[in-house]
Amino acid sequence: MAQSDPTLKPPQGRPERLSALAHRAPLSGDEGLTMQEAAHLGKLVLRLDESVAGTIVPDALNGVHLPTLPCCSDTSATGTLSVLWLGPDEWMIVSEAGTEQTLQTELELQLKGQHFQLSNVTDYYVCIDITGPQTREILMNLTTLDMHRRSFEAGQVKGSILGHANAFVWQLHTDTGATETFRLIVRSSMADYLWCLISRSARLFGMAEETPLSGERLVI
Amino acid sequence: MFLIECPWCGERDMSEFHCGGEAHIARPDQSESMTDEEWAQFVFMRKNSKGRYAERWNHAAGCRRWFNLLRNTATDQILAVYRMGETAPSVATDEPVTPSGEAPIGSGNDAVKLMKPGEAL
Amino acid sequence: MAASRQKTGLRTQQGGRINRDKPVSFTFDGKTYQGFEGDTLASALLANGQHMVARSFKYHRPRGIVAAGAEDPAAIVQIGPDAVETDPNTRVTEQEIFEGLRASAQNCWPSLSFDIGIANDVFSDFFPAGFYYKTFMGPPLSWMRFEPFIRKAAGLGVAPTDRDPEQYDSTNRHADVLVVGAGPAGLAAAKAAADAGARVILVDETNAIGGALLSEPEGSVSLGSKPADVAIQKMVDELHANPDVTVLTRTTAFGYYGDNFVGLWERVTDHLAPTDRVTHMPRQRVWRVRAKQVILATGALERPMVFDGNDRPGIMLAGAVRTFLNRYGVLCGRMAVIFANNDSAWATAFDLQDAGAQIAAIVDIRRNLSGALLQKAAHRGIPIHAGSAIVGTKGRSHVAAAGIRVLDASGMISSKANWIECDLIANSCGWAPNVALFSQSRGKLFYDDDLKAFRPGASWQQERSVGAANGAYDLQDCLDEGRNAGAAAAADAGFKKRIPRVLKASHTMLVQRDLQIMPQIPSPKAAKKVRAFIDLQDDVTTKDIKIAIQEGLHSVEHIKRYTTTGMGTDQGKIANLNAFAFIADHLGKSVPDVGVTTFRQPYKPVTMGALAGQHVGAHFMPRRTTAMHPWHKAQRDVVFEPVGDWLRPRAFLREGEDFHQAVQRETKAARTGIGVLDASTLGKIDVRGPDAREFLNRIYTNAWSKLAPGKCRYGLMLKEDGMVMDDGVTACLADDHFHMTTTTGGAANVLGHLEDYLQTEWPDLKVYLTTTTEQTAVASICGPGCDRLVADLLDDVDPDPETFKFMDWRDAHIQGIPVRVFRISFTGELSYEINIDASYGLWLWKKIFALADSEGGTYDITPYGTEAMHVLRAEKGFIIVGQDTDGTATPFDLGMNWIVKKSGDFVGRRSLSRSDTSRDDRKQLVGLVTEQPDFVLMEGTQIIGSKDEGAVPVVMLGHVTSSYFSPNLGRSIAMAMVERGQGRAGETLYASRKGEAPMAVRVVGTDFLKERSDGTI
Questions:
Q1: Binding-face residues of C in 386-415 toward A, CB within 8 A
Q2: Is residue A89 classed as helix, strand or coil in its secondary structure?
């Protein structure tokens, strides 16, 4: 439990930043199965007309294209910046923690003259990374997406429903032969629910089940 | 629970979608000059026909796009998917014909549970 | 007779697919029995000579084991060690035994062998068809009075007394080919499809692969060059080795839904002793499968003969007797009579004899039997009664004798009774394809005159029926059909067509041939005395069906509902066809003219736990919380309120306070000190594009063309019918960029509504929308002089209300962290809403409270919850959409004419001038003050016009929508929707109260603070 006691006064002079899953430590299971939060990754949603998206490559994106093929993503050679297709005129730009504000400023400048929208959703969404040979099977417990290798390939990103939570399921590009990693992008307020539901669904693979924070008094 | 072919994301479970009712009902531009009856026709009245029906659907959990879908409401058979602004393609379907108003197969109605004498397999 | 009482020695010396090295002991009704690993509860009980396991639903008649699988009608028991971990209505033919299994008979008291409820049987004439309908058509409450007694007398098992401690899973799968049933046809299909490269799921209801082949004597069948058991194992091994194939045993396909969506129910640990269950394994699992192609190889079910006295324990289906013998090594009796109308039942006689039982007779209603068959039986010395029938039976709790008579050519009795002693009647009225799933898939059935049964006809979905499920009873036909269907299904699923290898079977199996159906075997008794059961679970006899027909019910669906035939936990799997045939016979129609009842999902009962899967308890549904939630939760005594999916603090109770006192204190503090509210849950939408203003003009009722950057405006959103849908404040960030807020509960709907208009009605408008609800956490700071606190917080912006005006917003920083501050108010008091990136929300919240005097700071800061927020906004007369409105209020009804612009279209505009919405007698929002200032009206209270309620129906003028005690006004206040309310200012109306005289209320304006300063209240 990385979280400080909320009743304590904040340290003077130093703003404290917490992600919605700050209270959850990484979990592991059999055969190298792990689940952890990729905290504070920069996330921007870009809306832009699909007819110009194919031709525009803002410098700020370091050569990464806006994918126009549905459910695809493009990632920089260094792996630090990715652009995910969310809809025909909607992308999510995922970047290293702390880079989103600079990126937003640069993109705003470089897209000037276009009809576009750029919104910072860094704190809106939480990224949960699951790695291990059983990941697809764990996700099958929660989503109706076809998780078979032939249907869900590296680099693909698909919006769907996991349990009761809407989320984007994104298979990260990994080196060939490496263990697959799926990144779930979910609203912050649903993150604890989804984290725990995954841990519950991964019980079969040796992961310890965690239950959502609860115990609030509802009735007088 | 049928499958829907999202024009962008491909075939997905129905639970990812949200139905927006009858399609091709354009919002009138000159509503002030319309009679109450004409306006009520636009706001309240929907065909809700049995058989071929054009509907609006939204891939709510996916790409959030609205699109049109032609569905046989008697059988849940999806006949066509097409984008907003396009007109419904003409396709053949088993329209309800039996005395009870059911499609001849796939409707689950009492009248169509059994093959009729002489009916080909 | 003697043999039936002998409780040991019914296990054969050898054979059967059980593990004789692993004895297993279990208890049934408190008595300990021995069985072997691989036994079902049924086979183990039969091996111990225990046929009777239950009492019937209505008459409490003894019920024995009839079938060997899921189709058994009435052999259901209660399973489990205690009142919590207990499963009612478990079929003994499906429950596998394990060490320590505890089973008990249900629906009997005090015991299975002596059951008081048998009195129902004696009085059975008083429980005819339609008994419930006839008896309880009395006064409305009589069913309520009788119901508990009926439930107790006629019933099934008992429900667990507490929450199920077991874990269940559910999972989703996609398959190219799903094969249901792993008999020869299903196995061949799965193999062919898998060989073509398809993703295959093969499921079987039982614990082993092989289907009907498991009911054949070992070594009697070969596939290819190998004995069947060896060949099957080889195929299963090959399937297991293929990573794209999933083989599931103990798994029932319980429902076939649209677009090849099939529900599978897997019993994962039910067959294991508690000590063998691995803790992380679920007890059961539901698989939700989407298959491109489905192959149904669900086999055929045997029909029982319908004759007088056919319900005694010891009267079993001939095929089941063979299964118990060859699969489980159990002799169901030592002195058997076979009663048949086709050849397959003769195999039971031969196998039983080979295993050491005596065959007292083969009774066959057919007059002309095949020579080979007769010769074989004669050679074995078995007495044959051709053209004869069993017309009655004897025995108390077990069959003891069969009464045999010869039938003439017209099927009438033409001889005297010939009673033959026996302890087993193995009967067969032929086999019917198990078409339940096919019919669920909405395929059409047809009646096959040779099989005298329904078979799959035209398919509706991407599905194929093969083998016995398709009426192919010959082994080679099953293998061929399966193989061809598997290959074709894989090809239709997009895999390259391959011609699979032919698997040749060699065997001497006797299959159904020359079937002759007699819907009811005649009886020499008076019709009234005949008790020939059609549905053994629901105690429906031929007499009941006759009564239903006599009373005018001619449709099978009506007769089913009137007599309950085909209902219950077995859904009449072996009863239905007999019922249809009997109805047809009685009405003088053909069976297809009578038709079938509807086969519905589920094929058999599925536990609720398995359907819920992992989505129970703590994982039931998401509870969304804000960034500040850890602080809220850590407070001394805080009460939360669910708002949509959100959990928001409702009130923060201090020591010694109750909820009401806390709300009063918080409400007062927000107008006297400083109140702080977590407003993070409000919906937020970023609106951007050159046409953003035009878009806002169209979706809000007021004008947005002139709102300058840096300013905010309140907006009301209508639906096209003119009714208020949502409200909120929208800020102009730049000429083409706006920040919209919505209600907490309406956020998703509003975004959907706006996207809908943009994408479908106005695609020409250049506007983009993105939800930003959770990007920012919001602290709403309220109270006179709260600007000083805000000034202390902000690095670089002066919040002085003189310069930072109402409905302005500013970008600012707090310790270098960017924030956006809105001077907007939901209380009427001086108020600032500070928006900060959510990851800093808790830090900001703690920073604010560090300035409170209670923490050593200098400000009188009170956190307040949603309840105080409600009171505060009501004091000011602000509406809450969804509380004061219910989807039938226009802006005019709410007295908000000022927000409706005079010209220009917007969503809902035209509806505001419809004759109905412009009526002057509509309900309108008003303020109400009670005559007694301390009396708080109940929300929902009806408002009437007179002091007395008068005669019913009382004329209702309206109802109370919001009602509180206002600490700032020192009296109760209420808002109400009242007919012509806006013209009633000053009028006295009355609020109806239960059990008390109506309370006088005065109509005032909704802004109670203004009413107070005006001196009205």
A1: none
A2: coil
Domain map (residue ranges) of chain A = 27-39+123-205, 42-120
* Surface of B (33-72) touching A: CB under 8 A: 59, 61-65
Contacts of B66 in chain A (CB under 8 A): none
C324 has pLDDT over 80: yes
Interface probe with B: pick from C759, C902, C909, most Cβ of B within 10 Å: C759
Give every CB contact of residue A51 below 8 A, 6+ residues apart in sequence.
Answer: none
pLDDT at A8 over 60: no
Which three-class secondary structure state does DSSP give residue C379? helix
Nearest to C437 by CA among C255, C306, C576, C581: C255
Q: Do C172 and A204 touch (CB under 8 A)?
A: no
Assigned superfamily of A27-39+123-205:
Probable tRNA modification gtpase trme; domain 1 (3.30.1360.120)
Reading the block at residue A119, the tokens are 């919104």
Interchain CB distance below 8 Å, A161 and B65 = no
More confident residue, C996 or B109: C996
Whether residue C448 is predicted with pLDDT greater than 50 in this model: the reply is: yes
Q: Which residues pair with C737 in a beta bridge?
A: C688, C734
| Whole-angstrom distance, CA of residue C844 vs CA of residue C836 | 8
Share of chain C above pLDDT 90, in %: 88
> Rounded CA gap, C670 and C679, in Å?
15
DSSP C137-192: -SSTTHHHHHHHHHHHHS------SS-----EEEEEEEEEEEEE--SHHHHHHHHH
**Residue C142: predicted pLDDT:** 62
Chains in touch with C (≥3 Cβ pairs < 8 A): A, B
* Band (C145; pLDDT cuts 50, 70, 90): low
Q: Please identify, in words, the CATH class of the domain defined by A42-120.
A: alpha beta
Does the domain formed by B3-28+37-97 have CATH 2.40.128.50? no
**pTM to 2 decimal places:** 0.94
Count CB atoms within 10 A of the CB of residue C920. 9
For chain B, domain boundaries: 3-28+37-97
Nearest CA in chain C to B33: C910
More confident: C739 or C118: C739
